[in-house]
Amino acid sequence: MNPTGRNFSEDRFFDPDPAIRSVAGDLYHEAAGTPIVSPHGHVDPRLFSDPNATFGSPADLFIIPDHYVFRMLYSQGVALESLGVPRRDGTPVEQDHRKIWQIFADHFHLFRGTPSGAWLTHELHEVFDCQKPLNSATAQEIYDQIEARLAEPEFKPRRLFERFNIEVLCTTDPATDTLEHHQTIRQSGWNGRIVPTFRPDGVVNFDAPAWRKNIDKLSEVSKIEVVDYKSFIRALEQRRAFFKSMGATATDHAALTPATAELTPVEAEVTFQCALKGDWSCSDAARFTAHMLMEMARMSLEDGLVMQLHPGSFRNHNDVIFQKFGLDKGADIPIQTEYTRSLLPLLNKYGNDPRLTLILFTLDETSYSRELAPLAGHYPSLKLGPPWWFFDSLSGMARYFDQVMETAGLYNTAGFNDDTRAFCSIPARHDVWRRASANWLAGLVARHIIDMSDARAMMQDLTADLAKRAYRLD
Predict the structure, then answer these.
(1) Is this structure's pTM higher than 0.90?
(2) How far apart (Å, rounded) are the C-alpha atoms in residues 290 and 155?
């Protein structure tokens, strides 16, 4: 029995139609042993720089850092303090990790039928071999079991990386990061392939927390004193070159909207100088971010780094939670997002050049068939990323296949990435994607749209090859 008390079926997530389920099972099992390619995510590289690093307690691993978990509990009235989530002002929070785990177990039923529930079930069953359902009565027994496993050499991060059969794992790192942990991994002689991704939001977006301090840090690490717009651009180019020398193949950009626009050199200089003095408005910040997306596309043409754009999240919607606990605490909410007009300046200038790869994501599913699939089906530079964040789910993937593939075509998409901070959930997330992919392909076979030969080739592409090609990880 799995932790939800139901059979952990080998046919989970497949269509109940026997004909489709049979083909889906065959396709899935043929691809199940393919190494995992994780081209975008937020796992901390510190886990792998020290060969003796551990995940801490079960609460450290499953609950305290995971906003997917504690946002659900908070929605049902559970205080974040009781879950050990640190407060910004240093006010004490619960330190007894067994108590935190008990609260989690008491509320585990809240995850029934959710993507998080599927991932947690997979982790508990497949990674930690927990055979009893997690609930109030079994909480401490399962805590003991996981705690004992985490103390074993086989459950250190590097060993699990190998056990999970991960071919490559890409982290996401601020532009100002010295990448010391990546350097340590390289120098250690360990063969795990972990590469950085260049994330410049903290120095590009004026409204980023501590933007001015980040600029000072950019000056420090680039050894280029950032005193004007031109030196700012040189410093960014220096950092991109450094990241690339450390194995990076991609950049990542978050913005409220995908708006792009090109400022004149004078406008860029004046805007940047005002920001340095703290004299900027929200409209200034939006215009500068739109301009810098253009600049980042230009740089990608020159240095070959793949460009990812993740727009459409209204960050820190709950100001009370933000003031108490800070960023990434489960209060980021999707907004309606327009792409066709927003991306026009960038695509008119760079979109026809196949040297650029721009991978687009969305939190607005209504844009799939209306805008994103037609755009990706035309521009040589564009590819569509997989269902992201709130839609990284079985149903979200099915909607993605239905709304995107007929217009964009499979080969204008970028395969799958898990986009996770929770390292032990990586196999679970890829397993859901592989099963959803097999199920979609089996439906095409059953309707005689493709044959099994096509389906097998497409399954291999969806499992790993699309991501490897899109992110230039071959």
Answers:
(1) yes
(2) 44
